[in-house]
Input
Amino acid sequence: MNVVYILLPVALLIAVGYLVLFIISVRKGQYDDTTTPAVRMLFDDEAEKQDDDEEQ
Output
C-alpha cells in the first residue's frame, strides 16, 4: 500500500508534464495543418512531371 503513495504523485507529475508539453506545442502551431504534410510528396511528384512535360 505504501507504493501507491509514491506512484500516484509520480503519475500525476508525468501527466501534468505531458499536458504542459501538449499546450506548448499547440501554441507554437505544430498541429495547425495536419493534411498537407501527409500528401506533400504526392504534390512534389506532380510538379516535377509538369516541369518535365513543359521542357520537352
